[in-house]
Design brief:
The protein is of the alpha+beta class and 138 residues long. It has two helices and nine strands. It has a four-stranded antiparallel sheet with strand order 1-2-5-4, with no helix packed on it. A three-stranded antiparallel sheet has the order 3-6-9, with no helix packed on it. A hairpin with a 2-residue loop joins strand 4 and strand 5.
C-alpha cells in the first residue's frame, strides 16, 4: 500500500488540476529577469547598464509581449528604457547615494489554439516576476 500512495497522489493531482496545466508547471515556463551587477556611477558622468529578460524553458520567447515597471528609487537623472527583452538604465546621475529598486516584468503570452475545445488558451503558469537591484552613485 505504501508503494501505491505516491501514484494515487499523482493521479489525484491530474484529476483535480487537469493534466495540461500540471504539465505546464512541471516544465516551469515562466518569465525570468537575468542577474546583473550594477556598476558604480559618478555624479555628472553618463551612466549605462542593461538587464536582459527571457521566458525560461520557452524556445519561442520572442513571440511574447514584454512590459516593465520599476518600483523604488532610481537616482535623479537615471531613467529606465525598455527595448523588447532588454531594459537599460541610463542617464547622467545628479545625486550621490545607494539606490535600491525592484524591476517588474509582465509578459503577454501568445495564445495557442486548442482544436479539441475550439478555444484559445494561455500557455504559461506565471506571467510576471520581479528582481531587486541597487545602484551606487559617488
Amino acid at each position: 500500500m505504501k508503494k501505491q500512495l505516491p501514484f494515487l497522489l499523482f493521479l489525484t493531482c491530474f484529476v483535480f488540476t487537469g493534466c495540461k496545466d500540471y504539465l505546464d508547471c512541471i516544465v516551469n515556463r515562466r518569465p525570468e529577469i537575468h542577474d546583473a551587477t550594477f556598476k558604480d556611477g559618478t555624479i555628472g558622468v553618463y551612466y549605462y547598464q542593461e538587464v536582459t529578460t527571457e521566458i525560461k524553458n520557452e524556445p519561442r520567447d520572442n513571440d511574447y509581449g514584454y512590459h516593465y515597471d520599476v518600483y523604488g528609487n532610481l537616482p535623479d537623472g537615471i531613467h529606465m528604457f525598455a527595448n523588447y527583452r532588454t531594459v537599460s538604465f541610463e542617464g547622467t546621475p545628479e545625486v550621490a547615494g545607494t539606490f535600491r529598486f525592484t524591476l517588474l516584468l509582465y509578459v503577454d503570452p501568445p495564445l495557442s489554439y486548442d482544436y479539441d475545445t475550439d478555444q484559445y488558451e494561455e500557455v504559461m503558469c506565471s506571467e510576471s516576476t520581479s528582481k531587486e537591484f541597487s545602484i551606487t552613485i559617488y
